[in-house]
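Ligand-bound model needed. zinc ion.
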Amino acid sequence: MSNKINQSSLITELQKQAGEVLVRHRSILDIMTKLDEYNARINRAVAKSVTSCGCIGIEAKKQEFSTDSFHEALSMVDSHVIGSICPTCKEILEQEIGAYIFFLSSLASTLDFDLAKTIEKELDRTKTLGVYGMK
Ligand SMILES: [Zn+2]
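Prediction:
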């Protein structure tokens, strides 16, 4: 429980900080397009881990789902990732994901809502729906 509170206050602190330091991209239009930019940068960093570094590979094929049980379906699906991300690629990904979260926090601040509460609501919704909330 205390871990949940600490994570929540960390998100609240980031949202507060984002609201204070964001100057050049203060417009909601800049924030929205920065979110798109960093989403693309995250995908690019994963792709470069495959094509430039080679620490991971992707071997994708059709997912076979079983409708018999959730646990059986979970055991049959695959991420299609081969190998493990190396420390260098992980650091790059962490930077891109961090920047994305910063602009997500900025969006929340600009529209005057609490990102930590949004995350808690999503967590509750996911727990409540359980298997029926599969995404
Ligand atoms: Zn790598």
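Helices lie at 2-21, 28-53, 70-76, 87-110, 115-129.
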